[in-house]
Design goal:
Elements: H1 2-14, E1 17-22, E2 25-29, E3 43-47, H2 50-55, E4 60-61, H3 67-78, E5 81-87, H4 97-104, E6 110-133, E7 138-147, E8 152-153, E9 164-165, H5 180-201, H6 205-231, H7 237-265, E10 268-292, E11 295-304, E12 309-312
Parallel strand pairs: 3-4, 5-10
Antiparallel strand pairs: 1-2, 2-3, 5-9, 6-7, 6-10, 7-8, 10-11, 11-12
Helix pairs in contact: 1-3, 6-7
């Protein structure tokens, strides 16, 4: 449940505590300074499923568009530093737009341009500080770009690819933007994937496997020893029960030892949002009609001249 993980991260960053109670239901304690945002309460019952919320009176239903989630996202975005940058484009024009759009559609359609309108599109950069907890802890910084027009992570952009000013230079209308909470979730998931790859690079699979096999062999030998003791002649019923109970505990202890090996030898990432940057890109909205035989359809594309790419609305 990605939304639950997002809210958990935010509450922990706030300095609060969240504890699962049952499926899709959690108890959260938040610092006093945030109480005014939640009707003066610091003890919150959070439900992440509509039916669970209905069954638990006094719970806050947390979903996209809910007031509770909006408050958490606002807190998360206000905590780090935020900045806006206005991208400079040499020219907001495109030659042969019909042919370029036709290629996007696999040359299956006839394209007729109806209008071209200058617009502003937004890309949000979420900058995460990731701390890896291990025998030797270390930090990494991830800059995750999200195209707010589509709500998807954009791996093609980087700071080096854009030139910008700190103040707007044109008064164009803005293109539609995806929900900020969904964009935050997409960026958080991308950071998780990046951290997963980094953790794999910083761990030694051969060492993990050898330690795992060593522990398994040790407990296998203990199990055999208990079998031998239980097979001896003259062992009392009481002693058999005692040995059987100890042998049963070996599986639990083995699981605990294997868990400790993974925890100590494979770095575990924790995330903190350092700051966010919103880039405002000049774009060209292109409304067109595409036709194929008896089929006709209106479509809207957005052309971004810095990277020379087309996008459709989410």
């Amino acid at each position: 449940m990605e939304l639950l993980q997002l809210v958990t991260d935010i509450i922990e960053t706030m300095g609060g505590v969240i504890q699962p109670l049952e499926y899709a239901l959690c108890q959260a304690l938040i610092p006093d300074k945030y109480a005014p945002r939640f009707q003066g309460r610091t003890d919150l019952l959070l439900a992440f499923d509509y039916e669970v919320a209905e069954e638990n009176a006094g719970s806050e239903f947390v979903t996209f568009g809910s007031k509770a989630l909006d408050e958490f996202i606002d807190i998360a975005m206000a905590t780090p530093d935020a900045a806006s940058r206005y991208v400079i484009a040499d020219r907001l024009e495109i030659a042969g737009a019909e042919d370029k759009i036709r290629k996007l559609e696999g040359n299956r359609w006839n394209v007729r341009i109806e209008s071209k309108t200058p617009m502003i599109g937004q890309w949000c950069v979420f900058v995460f500080q990731t701390r890896f907890i291990a025998a030797e802890s270390f930090d990494e910084i991830y800059d995750v770009w999200v195209n707010m027009l589509t709500g998807e992570v954009d791996r093609a952009l980087s700071y080096e690819a854009v030139f910008y000013e700190l103040r707007p230079t044109a008064g164009c209308p803005y293109a539609p933007a995806a929900d900020l909470a969904q964009a935050f979730l997409a960026a958080r998931e991308e950071a998780r994937l990046l951290a997963e790859r980094s953790a794999a690079k910083h761990s030694d699979p051969a060492h993990v496997n050898s330690e795992t096999e060593r522990i398994k062999n040790y407990y296998a030998e203990l199990a055999i020893e208990y079998d031998r003791r239980m097979a001896r002649k003259g062992v009392s019923e009481e002693r058999l029960i005692e040995l059987s109970a100890k042998q049963s505990m070996l599986k639990i202890e083995l699981g605990r030892q294997l868990h400790e090996i993974r925890e100590s030898l494979i770095p575990k990432p924790t995330f903190h949002l350092l700051h966010g940057i919103t880039y405002h890109f000049p774009m060209l909205r292109i409304k067109c009609v595409i036709e194929q035989r008896a089929m006709t359809e209106e479509r809207t594309y957005y052309y971004e001249p810095t990277t020379k790419r087309f996008f459709q609305e989410a």
